[in-house]
Amino acid sequence: MKTKMEIIFQEDEMRLLAINPNWSREDILAKTGIVFLKDIAHALDINSLDIKQRAQKIKDCGRCPYKVMGVRKVWNHWLIRLEIFGPYYQTKLKPLYTGVDPQWDANVLLEEKGTYLLSDVCKLLPFAPHQLRYKVRQNPRAKLEYGIWKEQRLYLVNMIVFAPWIKSQWSRLETKSRTRQAKTRTDAAQI
Predict the structure, then answer these.
(1) What are the structural domain ranges in the chain?
(2) How many Å apart are CA 31 and CA 39, to the nearest integer?
């Protein structure tokens, strides 16, 4: 008579994955399996120490970090169970913004969708961050009107709102400049 086999490992826990450097953040988080913390921390640009501290806080609260966030220390290695870590990352660790690609120019940036750091956006535009931060502080509806807001000491830019607004501002400045030039020419012609 055959006895029932005890299930120790779940299906996804039996696969130790190597992180492919060509995988995007979304690709990695969609995988199932186990990865080393050091590998995923580098790939997702997260701090390993922060993950370990979060796991300890969860443990201190009497909960299991492996069940809550998919993090476990086995001997000397920290392991990540992607099936659990993926949703935890999306809700607790996902960065507020995406980095601006160094290959972009201002025109490419204005066609992009997503949230970016204001200081990175201003590196490609003829505006200084302090100019736009001032506008944000002056307008309580800046997030809706300009697509710029402050969150956790960071100024962020939602390109879906920001791009049309900055284009209209630039066009308005250009129109004013042309009007001034035309007026100057007219005044000069009258002299």
Answers:
(1) 11-93, 106-190
(2) 14
Return averaged pLDDT per consecutive 10 residues of the chain, 191 residues in all: 82 91 90 94 90 96 96 95 94 86 92 93 94 95 95 91 93 68 57 62
Assess contact for 15 and 56: CB atoms under 8 A: no
Distance between CA atoms of residues 82 and 30, nearest Å? 8
Amino acid code (one letter) for 155: Y
Separation CA 135–CA 89 (nearest Å)? 33
Q: Which helix (H) or strand (E) holds 95?
A: none
pLDDT at residue 152 in the model? 81
The CATH fold assigned to 11-93 is: Arc Repressor Mutant, subunit A (1.10.10)
* Entry pTM: 0.62
- At residue 103, what is the residue type? Q
